Amino acid sequence: MRLKLFSFLLSGVAVLNAAAQNPKVIRKGMPPVTQVNTKQSKAFYNLKQLDGKWQEVKRTPLNSKTPIAFTDTLLMQFHDSTKVEIKDATSMRMTMKGDAYIDPPYNLVAAGDEYIIRAIDKDRLLLEDGDNLKEMQKKEVFYFETLGKITIPTEKLNEPVNVDPKNLEGKWIVYRRQALAGSVDTDAVVIKSLDIFPSNTIGSAMGQVVCYKSDITESLSCKIIFGSANILVITDNYVWEFNTYKADGKEFVFGEVGRLMYYAKH
């Protein structure tokens, strides 16, 4: 009887040792909802649905229903069924390349980054990254790929015009600059994008401006004051005054004719 009891205890110790040596590994940062046995789970999505180029157009914190402003726009390009290239809009090139796959049931692993796919259709993708819900839109080309390739507008914009501030709301990304040779100093601070937040204040709004000087990019909070055919963009470091030449809700043209003109789109 003692021999049987001793054998039973030894078997129990062996089982405990085996369990200690083979713990279940959960990747750091994985939400509990995705901690599933992949051998028993079926993926809800496949990479063929993601093929192509996707650009972030909206970002909402998980603890809020209100979208926030952002400058590090996420860009993703999926190709060859298993590959992905990722960048953010503060640079002008794809910054990460790697493998892509679906970790069942709905985790997307892209070049080492993990997201939860919340929804997907032909032109829209919702990704959760642990902090925010990112709304991605399908694109034929990324905006930075059009730089220097946009046809010069045929319309003449010689005289500043009054604009409706409501037509200026949103994020404007500069796709083209036009300047006369020698009219802009080499150390000038140049605008890359201007995000004008919706405002109930007459004559002004808050926003975010991305600018660069000597290859150094800055993202700064700013106040925009709407004047008569012009705007002021005020930050702690810089103040710009721009004439406004066009703002129809689709395109925003501002600057100074004969010196430096900015052409921007959403």
Fourth-tier CATH superfamily name of the largest domain: Calycin beta-barrel core domain
CATH architecture assignment of the largest domain: Beta Barrel
Q: What does the main sheet amount to?
A: 8 strands, antiparallel, barrel
The rounded distance between the terminal residues' Cα atoms is 82 Å
Strand content: 35-45%
User: Over all CA atoms, what is the radius of gyration?
Assistant: 26 Å
Strand-pairing-aware structural class: mainly beta
Please, what is the average pLDDT?
A: 80
At CATH level 3, the topology of the largest domain is Lipocalin
How much helical structure, as a percent, in the residues? under 10%
- For the biggest β-sheet, the strand order reads 1-2-3-4-5-6-7-8
CATH class of the largest domain: Mainly Beta
* Total domain count: 2
List SSEs in N-to-C order: HEEEEEEEEEEEEEEEE
Global geometry: elongated
Query: Oligomerization state of this entry?
Result: single chain
Uncertain spans, ≥5 residues at pLDDT below 50?
1-40
Strand segment count: 16
What does the model show?
- With 266 residues, this protein is mainly beta.
- It folds into two domains: 39-142, Lipocalin (Beta Barrel), CATH 2.40.128; 147-265, Lipocalin.
- Helices cover 8% and strands 45% of the residues.
- It is built from one helix and 16 strands.
- The strands form two sheets. It has an eight-stranded antiparallel beta barrel. An eight-stranded antiparallel beta barrel has the order 9-10-11-12-13-14-15-16.
- A hairpin with a 3-residue loop joins strand 15 (251-256) and strand 16.
- The chain is elongated, with a radius of gyration of 26 Å.
- The protein starts with a helix and ends with a strand.
- The model is unreliable at 1-40 (pLDDT under 50).
